[in-house]
Structure formats: C-alpha cells, structure tokens
Amino acid sequence: xxxxxxxxxxxxxxxxxxxxxxxxxxxxxxxxxxxxxxxxxxxxxxxxxxxxxxxxxxxxxxxxxxxxxxxxxxxxxxxxxxxxxxxxxxxxxxxxxxxxxxxxxxxxxxxxxxxxxxxxxxxxxxxxxxxxxxxxxxxxxxxx
Amino acid sequence: xxxxxxxxxxxxxxxxxxxxxxxxxxxxxxxxxxxxxxxxxxxxxxxxxxxxxxxxxxxxxxxxxxxxxxxxxxxxxxxxxxxxxxxxxxxxxxxxxxxxxxxxxxxxxxxxxxxxxxxxxxxxxxxxxxxxxxxxxxxxxxxxxxxxxxxxxxxxxxxxxxxxxxxxxxxxxxxxxxxxxxxxxxxxxxxxxxxxxxxxxxxxxxxxxxxxxxxxxxxxxxxxxxxxxxxxxxxxxxxxxxxxxxxxxxxxxxxxxxxxxxxxxxxxxxxxxxxxxxxxxxxxxxxxxxxxxxxxxxxxxxxxxxxxxxxxxxxxxxxxxxxxxxxxxxxxxxxxxxxxxxxxxxxxxxxxxxxxxxxxxxxx
Lengths: 144, 364
What we know:
The structure holds two protein chains of two kinds. Chain A is of the alpha+beta class. Chain A has one helix spanning 8-38, and strands at residues 50-53, 62-67, 70-78, 81-86, 97-99, 104-107, 112-114, 120-122, 131-132, 134-137, 140-143. Chain A has two domains: 1-39; 50-143, Rieske [2Fe-2S] iron-sulphur domain (Rieske Iron-sulfur Protein, 3-layer Sandwich), CATH 2.102.10.10. Chain A has one helix and eleven strands. In chain A, strand 7 and strand 8 form a beta hairpin. The longest helix of chain A has 31 residues, at 8-38. Chain B is mainly alpha-helical. Chain B has one domain (31-219, 236-363): Cytochrome Bc1 Complex, Chain C, CATH 1.20.810. Chain B is 65% helix and 1% strand. A two-stranded antiparallel sheet of chain B has the order 1-2. The model of chain B has no long low-confidence stretch (mean pLDDT 95). Classes of the chains: A alpha+beta, B mainly alpha.
C-alpha cells in the first residue's frame, strides 16, 4: 500500500498543507456567523410609524420618545400644530431638552439653542435639528 | 517584511531560542501515540467554549424574568445564534468525552505515577472544575430542565450530615432554586470557574513541560524510568520533534474532534438537549422523569442504589478521593499494562461499572 518513492517528510508536508488549508477554510467559515451574530440588526421595520397619544403632547409642551432606536421629540407649539424632530443635537450628539419658559430647545452639553421649527438660534450647532414627518389620526400623533 | 519583524523580535526577545526549545528541538518519545494529542484537543475545545461563551454573553440576560426569553431570542432571532449556542452546549459534552478519554489514557499508561503526581492532581481538579462549569451553565437558560436538574443536583448536598441543609441553602442562595441561585451560578459560570480553570490549565501545562513527557510504556525496549530523589527533566534524545512532526498529528486529531462537534451540532443536537430544555422554568410544576446530564447519571443512580443518601454520597466521595490521590496509593514504578494485571482489572471493571450504572440511571 505504501509507495516507497514518497518519503515521510513529503507526506508530512502534504498533510501539513492540507490541515493548514482546512484550518483557513474553517476560520473563514467561522468568521461570517460571528460577524452576523454581532452585527446590529439590519433595521427591519424602520419605515414603521410611531404612534403617540395626542393627550401626551399638551400645548406648548414637548414629548420625548424613542424613534427607531434613536431619541426624538414631538412638540405642540400652537393648538393642533405638531412638529417632530430628532432629539440629537447636531453639534456633538447630546440629547436636547425642552425649555418651556423660553419655548425653545437647549442642548445641555454646549448650550446650543434651537427654535420650535428646529432652526439654530445660537451656540455651536452647525445644522438645524433633523425634522420628522408628523400626521394626525384621530387622537393619535403619527411620526415617521 | 516578515523577516524584518522576526529580526526585530529576535533582537529584543530572543524568540529563536524560545521557538527552538519549545517546537523544533522539543523532542517527544519515539513511540509517542495518538492519545497524547488529547491535551491539545482539550485546549482547542476550551478556547471554543471561551469564545462562544463570550458571544452568548452579548445577548444573554441573567435574570429569571428574562433569561429564558433571551435564550429563545438567541436561538430564533439573532443571526447564527443557534449555531453559537449549540456549539457551546454540545461542545461542553464533547469536552467531557475528551476529558474522560484523556484521563483513561493516562490511567492505562500509568503516566500519573511519580514524579507526575502534581500533573495528575491538577488534571483531576480540572475535570471536576469542568463538571462544575457544566452544572452551573446548565441552569442559565432557565428552562424546565435547567431548573429541575439544578434542584435535584443541589438537593443531593442535603445528605451531608449536620451541615446538609445549610449547604443546600448556601448553594441555592435560599430555600429553593430561584433568583439568588441564578445570580450565583451565573457569577461562578462566567467569572470564577473560568478564571480558576485557566490558572490551573497553566499549572498543568507547566508541570507537563517541566517534568517532560512520559514515554509510553510499550515496546520491547521499554524499561520503567528510574525516579531519582531530586528534580530530573525526562529527556528523549533521538526522539521526534514536536514541530512539525507531532504538531501535525495534534492538528489532525483536533480537526477530527471539531468535525465530530460540528456533526453533532448540525445533525444531532437533540442528543444532548432534551425537549424539556425548550420550556420555560415553572417552579410549581415538576416535569416527569427529570434526569441529570449523561456524565452525572452514575452519581444520580448511586444515590438511589444505597439505602441512605448519605451512604451513596460517601461512596461517591470515596471514589473521587481515591482517584484524586491515586499516584500516592499506587506507588510502584511499573507502567506496562501487561505487568499490572490487578490495576488493569480494576480499570476495566471501573469503566464497566461507570457505563453500567449510567445506563441503569438512564432507564431507571
């Protein structure tokens, strides 16, 4: 059965290359499931609207909520006039807060100020707040 | 580029010397056999458990209210979660198989004898640490199986005289298996036991390397090595180099075990995961025929054979202590199986008894 023309060293080299190759294939095959296991979810259902009870957003008040995993705010600046924004400050990513006395948003990190339309009033933010579409459906405010 | 890196490390760490001493010039006995690969297999399997365990920790929630759902989520929602979890759960069973084979081969070849007592004792503690890891890991999915298997297992400690009840309460963190049990089992499973295991594996390997690999007691020219009264590293002049010769064999057997593990994960995970593992724990409903894992069946059945639980527990303790201290009891220098008929008879009887009692426990 044994071919004398192939010496032990050659067999060992062949087996080594074979096992190394199998090892590489296994490593590559294992990397994909691990990557997929750890990767954040693909954001399935991100197009879904978020519904908020109208009563939760009184006049001249803001309601903070989670919009597809990110903080957002819905505001009733005038009777029946709702607006929604991403609550993430466009400066360095802190979450803004509502200042009812001033009727404006304030970023507590670096004192960025935004109007009820999301426009920059002062401070370092380079851009206005990201606006989110709002619709009314009976006693529900639909965002998204 | 690689050559420059090698040169950089060589100048600073003298790696050529380290590599030669531990790889190419590390000589193993000429008649070294395939059973000597089980240590490398076990290290690979433990590393696999470590990696899959960390991955599971990303999604697992150690809280009775959420543990089962978090495991369900891993199995059904997280991409490849089922693969990671089955590799971990089935892998623990494959580790126990490899550990038992490793122990049986060491017993058969008498490698535990002087001067390798510390290697044996540390190995035996590693076996028990692995069992403790299996037991604590079993509870974490908070299924009917985990809840009741842990209830039965911790209840056995109640047979210890005087302190039995207190011991059960301490193990469970309360009168019954509950939140406190999950908390302490989780801490043990993910931190305490793995840290102890890693440290002890290091010591075990240090012992193996320091005293030298034992020559297999086979072949006409084998003579028992003379044990001196001072430290002596067993050399094997003219032996085969660890690298590449034996490392290739190590790799082949490692892949064989990995192939077996993957086969079980894909085609027969149910062999180790019964249906009651898929129901959430219900502390008020005991499922019928609750049984421990296959490697604990011998202990489970022993407790039932003897008229009192204490007697059963005492016999178990005696067997385990006897095994742990074997090198101090069996002190002859002869290692050839053919010249140790009494030991080999006990060895075969022991295996038959383990298998027999386990099968009895399974069907009882």
